[in-house]
């Protein structure tokens, strides 16, 4: 799984692996190769993950507050879940990765867990889109989708940043058996370094005009940070977590990108001349403007997008 960084001791670029087997062999081995042979050992791990599936569709819900309208019903192959206090929840407990589409994972936390049948739980009091995964929220995430409880049973794959973007072939199976054994599971997976991806920006403000330059529009937003230490109420502004601060703002006409504005601050100026070139005249009262904003990473490029419609 390519996920955002979950703990300080997990390098941000490394993907995670979760495994379940019956019977559990005691230790699993992970091999990889850029082709179909010549597999080399990457790591071994000994913990069986709590893996399951969605029993019913999970629809989109609120972020940045409790989603009290949805219930997450899951079947676990092994292990249990239990309710936790809000304070424990805010500390990161009861986090699950929900696969809303192949390879696309929303991180959800659940405050309340109700056992419905052996291995089946109804989870409520949800926190959605955690660690910047609101863009991965399915509408719905379909029944049958994979679910993984995010805990210490997951193993971090010790790959280098230079390995990102390479379509590796992987084989995972009992460490006591050779990689050619029929018990090994083969999987193609290209690590993308999701933990290095900047979160989408927030609080995009309605554009305002600069008196000194009539017709120019200033688009403003608030930076978010993927750094784990950024989740603090005491900081005046979140840490940058990138080598340099940089953004791109796309001016949209439906699916067409009319213009890209680049800036090193949390604002961009859309000049009257640019508006006239794009639309035939500067924008005025009653007009709307669709924009898409990205924070940039020096290593992997654009972060998660924020798309909004501005009204004048």
UniProtKB/TrEMBL annotation:
It holds the Pfam family Rcc01698_C. Residues 49-148 form the Rcc01698-like C-terminal domain. It comes from the Bacteria. This is Rcc01698-like C-terminal domain-containing protein. The lineage of its organism: Bacteria, Pseudomonadati, Pseudomonadota, Alphaproteobacteria, Rhodobacterales.
